[in-house]
Amino acid sequence: MSLRDKLPAVPLGFGTAPLGNMFRNIPEEEAAATVDAAWKLGTRYFDTAPFYGAGLSEIRLGQILGKYPRSEYVLSTKVGRLILDETEDPAARDLGEKGGLFEFGRPNKIANDYTADATLRSVEDSLKRLKTDRLDIVWVHDIAQDFYGDEWLIHFEEARTGAFRALTRLREEGVIKGWGLGVNRVEPCELTLELDEAQPDGFLLAGRYTLLDHEKALQRLMPAAAARKVEIVVGGPYSSGVLAGGTHFEYQPASPEILAKVARIRALAERHGVPVKAAALQFALANPAVASVIPGASRPERVKEDHAALTATIPPDFWKDLRQQGLVAAAAPLPIDR
C-alpha cells in the first residue's frame, strides 16, 4: 500500500505548525476556529509535531479534533524531540538557521533525541497530548543541516539505528500505518533511500518542492523516490509565506533576490487572473510523486483561501508563460502536462 493510499482522497491537508504559536501568539479561540474551518471544508489530514511550540500544537489539535470521529481523519506527528518538564525562555532556544520560530510557544525544554527508546517515548507522549489512541503516520523530524549544521550526519546515524528501526517495528506490529522523514532538505531523504535496511513509506518535504524552489528536489529526489515507490507530502507550499503575501522565506526575512522572483510570479499571475496560492498548490500536486500538500494556517479565512485555491481554474496559458519565462524548471510537471 502506497502513502497515497494511507491519506484521504482530498489531497489538501493541514500543517499545524502555526498552532504552536509560530511567529506570533495565537489566541485559543482563533486556533480552534481555524481547525474547525478546515474540518468543515473537508480537510481530513492533519500534521503536527512535538517541536511546534514545545507541544502546544499537539495539545491544541488534540483538544479540537477530540469532538470529531477518530476514524474520519488521518493524523501524523513527528519524533526526534522530547518535550521535558523543565522550562526555559523559548526565545533563547538555538534553532540553527530557523531562529526564534516558536518564541511564543510553551516554555518547556526540548531535548533532541533520535534513539529507539526516545522514539517510543515520544510516540507515547504525543498520544497523550493529542488525546488519541493511535497515530497514522510518524515522521522523523529535522535530521538535516538546517537544524544541526555540519553535525547533521551524527543525528542521522542516531536515527538510522534508533528511530528508523523502532518505527519499522511499530509499522510491522500495526501500531502505525507508515513512517518517513519530515525535513526541509532533500539530502537526508536521498540518504535514506540509499539504505537497504530502511523502507520508509514517504517523506514530508517542507519548502523544497514549491513554485519558488524546486529544482534540487525535481532533479535528485523525485526520480529516486519514484524508483523506490516512495511518495512525497509537500509541506510549506507557500515557501514560509512569501508566496502568499508574507515576507519570510526559509523562516527568515526574504532576500531581495527572492522578493524579486516572487514579484515576477505575482505579476504573471495577476495578468492571467490567477491567485498565487492556486498556482502554488496546483504546481506541487502536478508532480506524480506528490501525494498531498499541507499548507499551514492560523486563521479561518486562510483555510478558506487554501481550499478555494485547490479547485481554482487556471488557464493553460499561465503555465505556458511560467515555463517560457523560466520561472519554473523546464522539466517540472505542470497541470497542462497531464
If you had to describe this structure to a student in words, what would you say it looks like?
With 338 residues, the protein is an alpha/beta fold. The protein has one domain (3-327): Alpha-Beta Barrel (TIM Barrel), CATH 3.20.20.100. It is built from 13 helices and 12 strands. The strands form 3 sheets. Strands 1-2-3-6-7-8-9-12 form an 8-stranded parallel β-sheet. A two-stranded antiparallel sheet has the order 4-5. Strands 10-11 form a two-stranded antiparallel sheet.
Low-confidence runs: none
From the helix content, strand content and strand pairing, which structural class follows?
Answer: alpha/beta
Helix content: 25-40%
**Per DSSP, what share of the residues sits in E-state strands of 2 or more residues?**
15-25%
CATH superfamily membership: NADP-dependent oxidoreductase domain
Note the main sheet.
8 strands, parallel
Approximate shape = globular
Distance from N terminus to C terminus (CA atoms, Å) equals 24 Å
InterPro entries: AKR (IPR020471), NAD(P)_OxRdtase_dom_sf (IPR036812), NADP_OxRdtase_dom (IPR023210)
Protein name: Aldo/keto reductase
Domain NADP-dependent oxidoreductase: 11-323
